[in-house]
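#struct-pred
JK: can someone run the complex with 2'-deoxycytidine-5'-monophosphate? inputs below
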Amino acid sequence: MKKPVIAIDGYSSTGKSSISKVIAEKLGLIHLDTGALYRGVTWFALQNCTDADDAIDLNKLFSSLDQIELEFRNDHGELVLYLNHIDISKQIRTNEVSDNVSIVAKQKEVRDFLLHSQRSLAEKGGIIMDGRDIGTVVLPNADYKFFLTASIDERTNRRYFELAGLGIQADREQVKQNLIDRDKIDSEREIAPLKQAEDAIVIDNTVLTKEETIDLILSYIKKI
Ligand code: DC
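RT: done, structure tokens with the ligand placed:
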């Protein structure tokens, strides 16, 4: 039997990636955190494509896209993102990247650059991919589509503790503002905006634990 293709979209810090990772383990699927790819391109831009004011120069980035090689490697069961053979899994979670990623992800050149590899990874089935446009653009024929949402205060708490767990000190108000700003840019952009696919199952997990959200998603997968 062909293994399923599952799309998980939703707002920032709704737990999409950590939930997808567990579901992948339970169902024997590959997990692709597409947000990490956009973060990887942003980290590259911050290192290599800035102007005199240290802001990202998008034109420099567009002409350097062919120098970017992003790859996930399995490190003791954890998928670790490498940029040109260097582990950047910690760097992509920094505030500097979070503050710039939505502007980078808005660009057609960047989205086209990442679209092909995302689609080809799903060709053989057996994958769960999380992001913002998976059910709408990347994999419109996915077998299952879920859209995760939660209140902004709950999402702020989750992101704050995620950063603390990575040893990154953050200001709670700044974390909240970054989530609000990113969701706005992601939802309002012209190309592949963050939006629920018409055939997606919406899950508000404000009062659900990670385990409860996973169980709910699995119950739908088994039912359909
Ligand atoms: O899931 P995340 O917070 O790590 O994603 C980082 C940013 O990348 C997010 O603000 C929007 C962008 N993104 C996107 O535009 N499309 C995707 N499929 C995944 C992420």
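RT: quick notes.
The longest strand covers residues 5-10.
The two ends are 15 Å apart (CA to CA).
JK: thanks, will look after standup
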